[in-house]
Design a protein that fits this description.
- It is a single chain.
- By secondary structure, this protein is an alpha/beta fold.
- It folds into 2 domains: 244 residues, Aldolase class I (TIM Barrel, Alpha-Beta Barrel); 59 residues.
- Helices cover 41% and strands 13% of the residues.
- Strand 9, helix 8 and strand 10 form a beta-alpha-beta unit.
């Protein structure tokens, strides 16, 4: 089946097969995880935020081979660094994205991420040269503002559009909120009403029905999932099938075991990081009835093979 026209999403000249995006998550978006999300029909996958050329750990040639378009996220407060990174990755990815929403204390202390929402003119200084220099779409990811007294999302939305940014993602919390409280989706609708570029909704989207509601009721043009995808990358396929109005009995059922095995086959060929495999395996089993027991046992395993055998023996 194909998506109804109303769900079509273009980021600049890039047309996505589904209006779903993977959020850039630190210590989550390994190359194998990105590939897994792409396998399960994510419209646009993303790297985690990279702060300099020296810090980039992604194999750019491998990113180029991922079956979904790839967004490369940059997090810096220096225009020169942004331009250097953008020019490096441009031949290998489909979108360059900027992080102006990270709420981590370390990031704020370095005057990066969400810190910059207080200074829209600095955001312009960092992003505009990249928009002018590259031939692929540039996007930005923001929050509502630093806090309730410093709400800047509408101002930054207008600024982004004026300098040629192709799309804007809004995580509907303030930087000071971290991940506490509930995302204010009404603010996303407010941004969409005032914006001439596509607006992507982010924050507290965990179910296909939520994604469909946000799209159907004009809150946004696309949906970005982070924590909802970390535990279940197949949610992107579920959203796509719901948007296609596929009858419930025909929708694809994907088990945690299937997700793990797909992830594992790629991961084992490119990494020797046991702790990282334990993390992903633990996230994938989060929806199981005996999740706590499974996670504890996964932590006790001392090899890749032991984890694989355990997952396949204990999950249907």
């Amino acid at each position: 089946m194909t998506l109804p026209k109303k769900y079509e999403l273009k980021i600049g000249s890039l047309a996505l097969k589904s209006p779903t995006l993977l959020a850039p998550m630190e210590a989550v978006n390994s190359e194998s995880f990105i590939k897994t999300c792409a396998h399960y029909s994510c419209g646009l996958v993303s790297t985690q935020a990279i702060e300099s050329v020296e810090d980039n750990f992604y194999d750019l040639e491998s990113l180029k081979k991922i079956p979904s378009p790839v967004s490369f996220q940059i997090m810096t407060n220096k225009a020169e660094t942004a331009l250097e990174l953008a020019k490096l990755v441009e031949p290998f990815v489909d979108v360059i994205d900027f992080n102006f929403g990270c709420p981590l204390k370390k990031t704020l202390g370095e005057k990066k991420g969400g810190y910059l929402l207080q200074f829209p003119h600095l955001i312009k200084r960092i992003v505009e040269p990249v928009v002018k220099a590259v031939n692929i779409p540039v996007s930005i990811k923001i929050r509502l503002g630093f806090d309730k007294d410093r709400e800047t999302f509408l101002e930054i939305g207008r600024l982004a559009e004026s300098i040629g940014v192709s799309t804007i993602t809004l995580h509907a919390r303030y930087v000071k909120d971290g991940y506490r409280g509930k995302a204010d989706w009404e603010k996303i609708k407010e941004l969409k009403k005032s914006s001439g570029i596509p607006v992507i909704a982010n924050g507290d989207i965990f179910k296909p029905g939520q994604a469909k509601m946000l799209l159907d009721q004009d809150y946004c043009d696309g949906v970005m999932l982070g924590r909802g995808a970390k535990n279940n990358p197949s949610i992107f396929l579920s959203i796509k099938e719901v948007l296609e109005s596929l009858p419930e009995e025909k929708r694809t059922e994907v088990s945690a075991k299937e997700i793990f095995n797909f992830f594992y086959e790629d991961f084992v060929s490119s990494s020797d990081n046991l702790h990282q495999l334990q993390d992903h395996a633990s996230w994938f089993v989060s929806g199981e009835k005996n999740a706590s027991w499974l996670k504890q046992r996964i932590k006790e395993k001392s090899s890749f093979e032991e984890i694989k055998l355990f997952i396949n023996k204990n999950i249907n």
